[in-house]
Amino acid sequence: MTTRSPILSLRGIQKSYGPIKVLQGVDLDIYPGEVVALLGENGAGKSTLSNIISGTVQPSAGEMTWLGKSYTPADPRAAMDEGVGMIHQELKLLPKLSIAENVFVGRYPMKAGRIDRKAMEDRARRGLRRLGLDISPDRLVEGLSTGKQQLIEIAKALTLNARLLILDEPTAALGGEETQLLFQQIERLRAEGVGIIYISHRLEEIRQIADRIVVMRDGAKVQEFDSGDVPIRTIVEAMVGRSLERMFPALPTPTDEVTLEVRSLSSPSNAFRDINFFVRKGEVFGIAGLMGAGRTELVRAITGADPISGGEVLLRGKAITPRSPIEAIRNGIVLVPEDRKLQGVVLEHSIAENIGYANLGEIAPSGWLSSRRIQQFAEGCIRRFGVKGRGGQNASELSGGNQQKVVLAKWLARKPQVVVLDEPTRGIDVGARSSIYDLIMDLARQGVAVIVVSSDLEEVLGVSSRIMVMAKGRQAGILNREDANDVSVMELATI
Amino acid sequence: MAALAKTQDVVGRRMLPSLRGATGPLIGLIVLCVFLTFASDKFLSVRNFLNVLDQITVLGVMAVGMTLVILIGGIDLAVGSVMALAMMVLGYLNIMAGVPMWLAIPLALLVASLNGLVAGLLITRFNVPAFIATLAMMSIARGLANMITDGQQLIGFPAWFNTMAIVRFGGFLTLTVAVMLVVFIVGLLYLRYRHGGRSLYAIGGNAEVARLAGINVNRATVLVYVVSSLLAGLSGMVLAARLDSVQPSSGVSYELDAIAAVVIGGTSLSGGTGGIGGTIIGVLIIGVLRNGLNLLSVSPFMQQVIIGGVIVLAVTAETYRKRK
Predict the structure, then answer these.
(1) Best CA proximity match to A142, nearest among A85, A91, A86, A87
(2) Which of A60, A212, B219, B289 has a Cα-to-Cα distance from A457 of 20 to 30 A?
(3) Domain boundaries, chain B
(4) Are A370 and B17 in contact (CB under 8 A)?
(5) Which residues 6+ apart lie within 8 Å of A235 measured at CB?
């Protein structure tokens, strides 16, 4: 590998925003036909680095060499023309346009002053074939799965003859099958000599896909592994800069008392059918399964956020089947939803207001309240639940982990009996995760019945005393902690 | 610039908490007043100030309702028509059917509120976009208003009705101005200090977050449209008192004035930020501007151009400040 010359070399790349240095002299070489995993906690500088490579951001100092020549892209377009393709975490496709139009948007092939639709579709079709996708280029993007859309983004980059692809968290929204499809395509591109920078929080995948691992911390490259097959613990330790005692805190022992029971619950959209389980007081109950297995729909129904077509929910033996979030909350059943930014917090409002919205009745029993009362109430929650921030700060200024703590804090002030967490650590960096796990265990210790839904197998195994595995809307089985491991869970999940 | 924005913020938060986010418009209003003081010797007088207050009553009452609607991320295009309908109902009941005013006014307000109820239900139950639902109500209410007298105006209210808009109690307040001030204060207190008022901010910020936080979003939405229509009706009562007559063509494009006042006052059209404090300033800016331009004998057509310019200025200044 060292005999070949790199397609891209970075030397001493620095970036400062005012007095804050976000990159302090990064060196990096990317060779053709290799997958380099770029890892690090949020704020480590991965995004800034990839934005510099893709021309979105200009470095403050340092040099870049692209195919032996000096490389200073002024904007993303210039980088694209050179052959650098960046696939962002949030997909940037236009749902109402066809696949071909999306691939060529902004640079439609022209003939006689008009868009040459035939050439456009032919070239798009070729791009899709190269990725092993057999979809017609004239169908609309709308309705395609996230995985397919991801591949279309890649096809778009490839029609530009990209020689370097930057993939930012490409699997964040993908299920197991789609992830494998994506990996096959990455293998294919690697064989064709395309260089790939792969950014992900899912360390399991890295071992599968990466040829080399570069770990960043605080804007600097701290470690490089010449193989993808590095123990996860070693990677995590490099990322957080300290050795990890344990990822997961010890589980408290649940009581025998059943807090929540679900009997033959079904959804009107058939997202889940005939679900039966119970959660005990002080127990952490995990729900595992692949994307689309109906887990989110199930817990949303239990917390009143989505409708139910049959079955019942019992709280300490009493049927309470909630028909709205208000009813669930009144019974002490609360949801920490899957998508923090869209369902958990109002980003443009302050932490205090966000906490206040769920506790207006508590803050103002008479209906009268003031900003100061909300502020005082919120500051109490912030202290108690270790949110790093001030009440007056906007939620958008917080890290993902702290936003999640705000969502938790707003509920915990109500002393709920059942707390449902849907993907509690998605998009949250490794260091902050353990404090979320600590919070979960504290809840259980205080006698709360906790339900954790997670796509992260290690997480669901680490925090749950029992795990229900769902597959295609059905409950495939409930495993005790002793019997649960990645194999037994995956077996049930793929039934 | 940044330092100025910061000072504005501190001033806004500490001294005038209800004006948070509206300090920019407030400065604009002050600059405008200073300018007009020098430009016209008639501007700076108690008498003229009271005139301005009289002139903004209709817009002021209506804009409070519009603020609530825009705060939850909605829009109410029907208010101008609903105002006309309420006025015609009042005229019909009192002048044509002989119903006494003490009963005719509440009935007219009830009819106005029903418009908001229909719009609110269309929006929450049938998922009709607010723009479309209130556009439809705008047309329906205007048509009904015209049907009552076949487009004719009505005169002949009891004499005391007009005096509400003329006689200044204590040499200061007409009853119509008092009505506006009460609406301002109730709106201000409600949004700042009431459970329900704070919930509107949550709904406008993100309706799904609000719903999952246990706020009854649908009920609040319907109520907001009802209140908006009720206040549109009330502004119709104010206008009827001022004109001592009612006609079905009243209030055409008033909804746009109300939206302009709210937006100039710093309430975001996407919902979740703003408040009555800003709207009062927005209403005052429009009122003072019209008054001042009249004193300077600027043609009404030119006034429209200038007010358009002010909207652009206010919104771009605010957007620019946020981006900083």
Answers:
(1) A91
(2) A212
(3) 22-323
(4) no
(5) A39, A203, A206, A213, A215, A225
Residues recorded for chain B: 324
Query: Which residues of chain B lie closer than 8 angstroms to A368, CB-CB?
Result: 193-195
Against a cut of 0.90, is the pTM above it? no
For residues A154 and A87, is the Cβ–Cβ distance under 8 A? yes
Cβ neighbours, 10 Å, residue B156: 10
Between CA A23 and CA A390 the distance in angstroms is: 27
Q: Is the CATH number 1.25.40 carried by domain B22-323?
A: no
Rounded Cα distance between B68 and A148, Å, is 42
From chain A, the residues in CB contact with B213 under 8 A are: 325, 329, 357-358, 410
Give the helix/strand (H/E) hosting A125. Answer: helix A117-130
Q: Judge whether residue B20 has pLDDT over 60.
A: no
Measured between CA atoms, the residue of chain A closest to residue B20 is: A371
The ipTM, to two decimals, is 0.78
Cβ separation B209–A345 shorter than 8 A: yes
Q: Classify each residue of B41-71 as buried b or exposed e, where b means 16 or more C-beta atoms within 10 Å of its C-beta.
A: eebeeeebebbbbbbbbbbbbbbbbbbbbbb
The C-alpha angle with vertex B7 and arms to B4 and B9, in degrees rounded to 5, equals 110
User: Measured between alpha carbons, how far is residue A162 from residues A71, A182, A474, A493 in Å?
Assistant: 15, 17, 43, 37
Give me the half-sphere count of Cα atoms (radius 13 Å) on the Cβ side of residue A437: 23
> Which residue type occupies A410?
K
Cα-based torsion angle of the residue sequence A64, A69, A70, A76 in order, rounded to the nearest 10 degrees: -70
**What is the average per-residue pLDDT within A362-381?**
86
For chain B, give percent helix, strand, coil, nearest 5.
75, 0, 20
Q: What does chain A come to in residues?
A: 495
Q: Which pLDDT belongs to residue B17?
A: 45
- By the 8 A CB rule, do A171 and A290 touch? no
pLDDT in tens, A124-138: 888 888 777 788 888
> CB B195 to CB A360 under 8 A?
yes
- At residue B252, φ and ψ (nearest 5 deg) are -65, 130
> In angstroms, what CA-CA distances link B239 with B151, B158, B161?
18, 15, 11
Report the alpha-carbon angle B263-B267-B271, nearest 5. 115
**Cβ density class A158-196: b for 16+ within 10 Å, e for less:** bbbebbbbbbbbbbbbbbbebbebbbebbeebbeeebbb
Question: Which chain B residues are closer than 8 Å to A364 by Cβ?
Answer: 195
Mapping DSSP to helix (H, G, I), strand (E, B) and coil, where does residue B113 land? helix
HSE, CB side, 13 Å, CA atoms: give it for residue A67. Answer: 9
Instruction: Decide if B192 and A410 are in contact by the 8 Å CB cutoff.
Output: no
Write the CA distances from A358 to A341, A413, B151, integer angstroms.
16, 9, 50
Identify the three-state secondary structure at position A86.
Answer: strand
Of the ranges A320-324, A488-492, B76-80, which is most confident?
B76-80
Q: Mapping DSSP to helix (H, G, I), strand (E, B) and coil, where does residue B184 land?
A: helix
Q: Is there a contact between A149 and A174 (Cβ–Cβ < 8 Å)?
A: no
Other Cβ atoms within 10 Å of B33 Cβ, number: 16
Q: Is B55 on the interface with A (CB under 8 A)?
A: no
Map residue A85 onto helix, strand or coil. Answer: strand
Mean pLDDT is lowest, of A151-155, A437-441, B2-6, for B2-6
DSSP-H helix ranges across A288-429: 295-302, 325-330, 351-357, 360-363, 371-384, 400-412
Question: The tokens 């270790």 sit on which residue?
Answer: A386
Q: Where are the beta strands (DSSP E) in chain B?
A: 154-155, 245-246
